[in-house]
Here is the input.
Amino acid sequence: MQVFRPKFFTMIKSYNTDQFIKDLTAGIIVAIIALPLSIALAIASGVSPERGLYTAIIAGFLISFLGGSRVQIGGPTGAFMIIVYGIVTKYGMDGLIISTIMAGILLILMGVLQLGNLIRFIPYPITTGFTGGIALVIFTAQIKDFLGISSENLPAEFIDKWIFYFKNVGSANLNSLILGIICILIIALWPKLNKKIPGSLIALIVATAAAYFLKLDVETIGSKYGELSSSLPMPSLPNINLSTVKMLIQPAVTIALLGGIESLLSAVVADGMIGGKHRSNTELIAQGIANIASGVFGGIPATGAIARTAANIKNGGRTPVAGIVHSLVLLLIMLLFMPLAKLIPLCSLSAILMVVAYNMSEWRAFRDMIREAPKSDAFVLLVTFILTVVLDLVIAIEIGMFIASLLFMKRMADTTKVDSIDGDVHQLSDDVLVYEMTGPFFFGAVDKFMEVIDESRRPCKTLILNMSHVPAMDVSGYRALMSLYLNCKKHDIRLIISDLQAQPYSVLEKAKFIDKLGNEGICESLAKAAEMAS
Here is the structure.
């Protein structure tokens, strides 16, 4: 099986003019959507605005050109904002670039090792929990610029941020607040007038024009960052040594893990919208290459963007050409209009990100799961959500997965049953016992198996264990059978196992257990086992 097969080279063989026109239109529209988001996400991540565009242009192009999805749009996303901010604060811009490149290498390795299919096993309560947590953290981080609070000493921790806001709410800038509210209203109401042009772009233009022509006293990109570059930088690398690599392993793993999860989740959503099927390992390798390139050109981490991917699909994009067009259009905008970006008020960008946070929060799904899902799933959801907000995303996922795995094992163990059925098997003498096992036979069910066997056993000459409803077993299950076999041998009881399915048979054969029982100890059906025992 070929690990790396970009969709671009598959789709281009049957490409036609009609599809190019649709892809061109979709690409232009997505670029317009991505423009304010890329700038806003860069600023919120603690880096200069143009770095968001570098990421959308470089990484976005490579994700489309080399990716495993027909319609995936790549670039900076809200999920990375808090992670990037933390890395920049602790390790500086060089630390972020090195972390991004290392994460890219890890993503490539994940794809080469064909780990793409494993990420889909992350339970829904965990993805909903950390997505909701990230959304709340993003929303919280935007309040400072939305209110126009001038202090630069914004704490990094979630609870400390809210304490800071309550202490400094009196210094809020009324102009920033009003302009931010107007932007939110425009974003919310504009789709009722026009669904092609994104409301975020209209809000950005209105806010910038109002601040410029009315001479409003609000902080802008220019007042905070000065002049902005209107060209791509030359590729370069910061100084890298072994101690730096060791120090940045954890941030790199965080970026790679989140990048892999988000990109493949986005690809799965896209598959559902177009009736397609992405190539998960190819997508991971492309994401890795894109992040390496983004770091080399001074960008920030990139991944598949669900909202931009959905917009691409809704506007007719069906091949990677749309994503390539999106990157080229962003490059053209940056070359021609980047100097004007310094006029954009920061409160308008905060308003855009607040709406992004609201949309990504999936609060309805969150609410419904709390109300309707089993208590165990709701517990996993809340734990992941709270840990994401107050601690760290990776810790949240790790603990969430640990709890979810324990609950899954308990559920599987609960479905495993061992029952005596000798009364249902005809023509059996009283010295024959028959047990039927149902469900997976793994370490979580071993105690139940041994307990039932010990409690219900009576003196007998033959013990039949029917395993027709046991789809799988592990080494603990084998050890339990071995213990049963040795106990039977000790008391001169004949053990017969019937109806072994393929996986349990393979486990027992590999462990030489089949040889120990011999041909007379394995039967293909319960009826034959009963006949042999009579």
